[in-house]
Amino acid sequence: MDTDILLTVEHLTMRFSGLIAIDDVSFNAKNRQITAIIGPNGAGKTTLFNCLTGFYSPTIGRLTLTHENQVFLLERLRGFEITKRAKVARTFQNIRLFPAMSVLENLIVAQHNQLMRASGFTFKGLFGLRSYRQAEKAAVELACYWLTQIKLLEYADTPAGSLPYGAQRKLEIARAMCTCPRLLCLDEPAAGLNPSESLALSELLVFIKEKHDIGILLIEHDMQVVMDISDHIIVLDYGRKIAEGIPIEIRRNPTVIAAYLGEEASTGAQPA
Ligand SMILES: Nc1ncnc2c1ncn2[C@@H]1O[C@H](COP(=O)(O)OP(=O)(O)OP(=O)(O)O)[C@@H](O)[C@H]1O
After folding, report:
1. Residue 155, CA atoms < 13 Å, CB-side half-sphere
2. What predicted TM-score, i.e. pTM, was given to this entire model?
3. What is the domain extent for residue 126?
């Protein structure tokens, strides 16, 4: 068995009444790799994330996450267990920060679980326990580390909702990283970004996978970002996996060109 495999998806099928959103999809995602999930609108990409993160219970299929000699069958866990025990974090297509909270507060809230554990889950603990004070200090340090990485440290006290759009996207990723995930699922993180913001995002994702010993699943329509940073690409169409491989293979795959990329694919143009 390949010890670098973090996630194994086997025969995943998701039906909504008569509609088959995901149809017998299988693939692996590795640690320290970016695995992109691409395909046309309605191909089933977000539904796949919803199955992985407990939003939906798959109709059929096994979703196995393995790290630190532990095996988690995600399809059997509830959403909060997937976050807390299996250590899967996710961002959404639409930004879901707490806009009225400061940038720093958004990152501290993400560490609520660790802080509550350190408080002994008691009201008194919040004020008295040394373990809580230490955990609080560690939470601020981790938040500042990520704010430094995304170059927003000087905006720590700014309300998150007043940041430019691209900065909010990066803050969402930093917030997910503050939960110390082993698998990070990003749903269209480059949507709405200008080219220089997309480049900064790509650099951030490469930094994360290289320095933080995690796997990244990336849903993205920006083919520049996908082709530049992905180690492996899975292509979905009408819920089925139609191809997988490294970027150069996917870019030249006639089935993928016909279904999604279009004839301009080799020039790096965006799919329609
Ligand atoms: N809760 C639901 N109930 C019924 N149908 C759904 C539900 N969620 C998704 N679908 C359908 O499943 C199919 C796949 O949708 P999904 O959102 O996963 O596609 P996608 O590849 O993420 O598309 P996009 O790129 O536009 O975000 C679509 O036909 C969608 O309408």
Report:
1. 21
2. 0.90
3. 98-180
